[in-house]
């Protein structure tokens, strides 16, 4: 390979780290792990060293079933491809080959050193090296572990086992150097701390704060994917706080900073400013909320700073139209972050609709049914629940809607229409905008229970409309 020195001497020097404490969870071998072991065995049988590497080792030590397995080896990319015909050279210049087996993908990477990172994303060159040197180039100690699958032995050159035991996230070597090499590691640090529930070691945290400007080098799509994992984690609120406190969030979602110090009427929001209210809501989400819901909670009051007014006469803070403004802002933000259109539409609609829950008990049955038939209704219900629970504690509207769900459970919220467009044409009406008006009026009466048959629907049309 051009410009790459290949060496394969196995350096057995390792840091003296305590053995990881006995696991609370006994893991049975999964089919994925079994397949990964068979690949490693083939590499060994061909005379190469082969270790499991990185996240799969970390997760297994934490008692979790790894979602994928990466294998680090002394074999060159050419040797890997010869050994596994049909594999893909997805990153052969960096020593990475993709092997497909058993319906899964396995990345096989040659032990390497990285050269300089002129673009702050990927090395300009690599030198094939030893396991110890390969561990030193990785991002965090808990991701720098290897496992010999044949001996079932952890190989630790970086103190990763000790940091796992202490639940600490620590950069390998000089933190600033690691973040300068690949600025996406700034987001990955917050993601790992959030998802694993680990504390970021002091020097590593300070380097994140000092290097936050480097995030400008990273494509928004890569930032978005890391942010998604943060916002979907049960520790999402803490993750957002770290993004704010480190300065990272200003480079992709600066609007959140405007929530800090944006006061709210204390009679409705005794918890404090909009930022505090939003963080509490993120903490209160149940179960495994959808990405749409998590984003909607984060952005539901994003329009408040822009609509803040103080009514001198009533001595009250107001945010008139913040739902509409917030919906527009959410659409712009998510477009900027290049989210899919369906996510943008769902989130902006939920932000736009979140204040309408205060009116549900006054809605006519037809309007209420349409309200409850919205495609994101259950997510909107959870948004409403945490919105109230984090502030005024008002639950009457939520409970009312749950009762209505039971009441309407025996029939479709929006039944088949009694009258269709073809019926109107047969009655002498010309297709056009008026069709929608007539059909919607019939549906309203149907939802109210005033019309229950096609014959009644047709009679309603004859009584209230004249064909052109």
TrEMBL record:
Belongs to the tRNA nucleotidyltransferase/poly(A) polymerase family. SUPFAM superfamilies: Nucleotidyltransferase (SSF81301), Poly A polymerase C-terminal region-like (SSF81891). Residues 50-170 form the Poly A polymerase head domain. Keywords: Magnesium, Metal-binding, Nucleotide-binding, Nucleotidyltransferase, RNA-binding, Transferase, tRNA processing. Pfam families: PolyA_pol, PolyA_pol_RNAbd, tRNA_NucTran2_2. Residues 330-456 form the CCA-adding enzyme C-terminal domain. This is CCA-adding enzyme. Signal peptide: none annotated. CDD domains: HDc, NT_ClassII-CCAase. Gene3D superfamilies: Beta Polymerase, domain 2 (3.30.460.10), cca-adding enzyme, domain 2 (1.10.3090.10). The keyword Chaperone does not apply. Its cofactor is Mg(2+).
């Amino acid at each position: 390979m051009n410009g790459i020195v290949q060496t394969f001497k196995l350096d057995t020097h390792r840091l003296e780290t305590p053995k990881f404490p006995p696991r609370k969870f006994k893991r049975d071998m999964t089919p994925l792990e079994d397949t990964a072991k068979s690949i490693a065995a083939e590499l060994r049988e061909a005379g190469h060293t082969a270790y499991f590497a990185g996240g799969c080792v970390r997760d297994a030590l934490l008692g979790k079933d790894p979602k994928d397995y990466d294998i680090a080896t002394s074999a060159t990319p050419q040797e890997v491809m010869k050994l596994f015909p049909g594999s893909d050279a997805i990153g052969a210049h960096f020593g990475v080959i993709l092997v497909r087996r058993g319906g899964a993908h396995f990345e096989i990477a040659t032990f390497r050193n990285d050269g300089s990172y002129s673009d702050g994303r990927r090395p300009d060159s690599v030198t094939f090296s030893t396991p110890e040197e390969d561990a030193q180039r990785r991002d965090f100690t808990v991701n720098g572990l290897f496992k010999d699958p044949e001996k079932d032995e952890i190989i630790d050159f970086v103190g990763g086992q000790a940091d796992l035991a202490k639940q600490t996230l620590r950069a390998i070597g000089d933190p600033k150097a690691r973040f300068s090499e690949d600025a996406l590691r700034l987001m990955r640090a917050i993601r790992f701390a959030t998802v694993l529930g680990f504390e970021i070691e002091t020097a590593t945290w300070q380097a994140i704060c000092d290097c936050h400007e480097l995030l400008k080098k990273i494509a928004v799509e890569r930032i978005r994917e890391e942010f998604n994992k943060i916002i979907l984690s049960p520790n999402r609120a803490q993750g957002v706080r770290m993004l704010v406190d480190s300065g990272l969030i200003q480079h992709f979602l600066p609007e959140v900073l405007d929530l800090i110090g944006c006061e709210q009427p204390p009679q409705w929001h005794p918890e404090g400013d909009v930022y505090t209210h939003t963080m509490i809501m993120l903490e209160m989400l149940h179960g495994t909320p959808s990405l749409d819901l998590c984003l909607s909670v984060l952005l539901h009051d994003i329009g408040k700073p822009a609509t803040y007014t103080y009514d001198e006469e009533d001595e009250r803070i107001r945010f008139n139209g913040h739902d509409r403004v917030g919906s527009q802002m959410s659409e712009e933000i998510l477009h900027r972050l290049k989210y899919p259109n369906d996510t943008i539409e769902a989130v902006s609609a939920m932000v736009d609709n979140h204040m309408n829950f205060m009116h549900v008990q006054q809605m006519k049955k037809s309007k209420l049914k349409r309200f409850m038939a919205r495609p994101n209704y259950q997510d909107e219900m959870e948004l409403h629940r945490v919105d109230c629970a984090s502030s005024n504690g008002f639950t009457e509207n939520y409970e009312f809607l749950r009762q209505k769900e039971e009441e309407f459970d025996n029939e479709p919220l929006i039944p088949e229409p009694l009258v269709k467009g073809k019926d109107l044409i047969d009655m002498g009406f010309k297709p056009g905008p008026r069709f929608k008006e007539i059909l919607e009026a019939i549906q309203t009466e149907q939802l109210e229970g005033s019309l229950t048959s096609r014959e009644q629907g047709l009679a309603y049309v004859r009584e209230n409309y004249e064909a052109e």
